[in-house]
Design a protein that fits this description.
This protein is α/β, with parallel strands linked by helices. The protein is built from twelve helices and six strands.
């Protein structure tokens, strides 16, 4: 049975959903009727009301047009509060708060870094601290958002997490030898979980050097969702052509992956080199 992630009852996203439901019921509108006005499905309206989906700016604008600012409620202002929350950028929250927690299987490819779901706090802190014009408070907010995101791997119904990592990641220094030893120790520890699989990819594989990406397989016949990384804003989509292209790239990369027992031995050997 799929479990919903825990929600803060005082968060702007929860209030957005509760106000949406209250005003819809006061107007005696069905979820399907609201969906037709928002240009989405009844399921998406239900997920908005349950705070299981992050609203878009257009959702907020359409709801304000539909209900007006009844009782002083402005969905655009609530959306702005959601967007202003610390941690992950708004475009990524749809993935971190909705897609990942609901996934049956997550597949990840990373040519440059340890994937975010497996990063230690020290490793993540050093990465975020290198971003230009970032304050210490912003770094801490992003680190804590990443740590919170990792909780999905501790759930009773955690997704199967299948990880491909380029061999160069084990040798790429992030934060110094101590941070790297801790990070590799963490990889060797987390892979003992039955839901986590890690394979190292031969550095001669050039197929995946364009970008990191993730594939989420969702339950109940829902379409696969992909997240493709970039230096500015990642792409999250269910577009069939895009998903198919990423699946093909993933399978091509996987042919260069060492078996897991060999991959773990490689990680252990590199860990000893970080002295």
């Amino acid at each position: 049975m799929e479990m919903a992630p825990s929600l803060d009852p005082g968060s702007p996203r929860v209030r957005f959903g509760s106000e949406m439901r209250r005003l819809r019921e006061a107007a005696q509108l069905s979820q399907s009727a609201v969906a037709s006005r928002l240009g989405c499905t009844q399921t998406q309206v239900s997920r908005l009301e349950k705070a299981a989906r992050t609203p878009s700016k257009s959702d907020a604008e359409n709801l304000d047009r539909l209900f007006g600012e009844v009782d002083g409620v402005s969905f655009v202002r609530l959306y702005q509060r959601i967007a202003a929350q610390p941690g992950s950028p708004i475009w990524f929250r749809n993935w971190a708060e909705e897609i990942e927690p609901a996934a049956r299987i997550l597949r990840s490819w990373d040519p440059l870094l340890v994937p975010g779901l497996l990063q230690t706090e020290s490793y993540a802190h050093h990465l975020f601290s290198q971003a230009p014009q970032t304050t210490p408070n912003e770094v801490e907010e992003r680190v804590q958002a990443r740590i919170r995101r990792q909780r999905i791997l501790d759930q009773d119904n955690s997704p199967l997490f299948v990880v491909l990592i380029d061999a160069g990641v084990l040798h790429r220094e992030v934060g110094g030898a101590e941070v790297m030893r801790e990070q590799l120790d963490h990889l060797l520890d987390v892979v003992q979980r039955p839901t986590v699989s890690i394979q190292i990819v031969d550095p001669k594989c050039l197929t995946g050097l364009l970008s990191a990406f993730m594939i989420a397989e969702l339950p109940d016949g829902r379409p696969d969702v992909i997240y493709v990384d970039s230096s500015t804003e990642g792409q999250i989509t269910t577009d069939l052509d895009s998903v198919t292209a990423i699946w093909k790239r993933y399978e091509a990369i996987r042919t260069w992956a060492y078996p897991e027992h060999v991959s773990l031995k490689m990680a252990e050997e590199v860990r000893r080199e970080w002295t």
